[in-house]
Write a structure and sequence with these properties.
about 140 residues, three-stranded antiparallel beta sheet
């Protein structure tokens, strides 16, 4: 079993305050504006997107490898949308766009493995049953 650590600190009020998020190899500042108003800095949703894209890519690589294939590249981009309803702000959508280059792989097999990856990668499983709708689209590159 593997355990990872991260740290966040916030100082001040919600609108005027600021914070930092840290984990191995990364430290970034965040504010109300970087989260809700497209201001400079990072935000938790960006980091969630990076984690989901990384997890999805690795899990798809696992499935391709188990099929006896050797993927040259798996490039996944995550778009995370935050919205608000009566209960407050929440992540409404996570869209994964994946491009795969892999000799011997056909589109039908890719679509099957991509769907399995969407359901079984650990980060997708974390969000299963939550408020976010997760979608994934995979494209085979020649």
């Amino acid at each position: 079993m593997s355990t990872s650590n991260a740290h966040a600190q916030w100082k001040g009020t919600i609108k005027e305050g600021k914070g930092t998020m840290k984990f191995t190899g990364f430290e970034g500042g965040y504010t109300f504006a970087s989260r809700f108003e497209n201001g400079s800095g990072t935000n938790p949703e960006e980091l969630i997107g990076a984690a989901h894209a990384g997890c999805y890519s690795m899990y798809l690589s696992l499935l391709l490898t188990e099929e006896g294939l050797n993927p040259e590249s798996i490039d996944t981009r995550a778009t995370v949308t935050i919205g608000k309803d009566d209960s407050g702000p929440h992540i409404t959508d996570i869209k994964l766009e994946c491009k795969v280059k892999c000799d011997g792989l056909d589109d039908a097999k890719l679509q099957k493995l991509a769907a399995t990856t969407k359901e079984k990668c650990p980060v997708s499983r974390l969000y299963a049953g939550g408020t976010a709708q997760i979608s994934a689209h995979a494209t085979l590159l020649k």
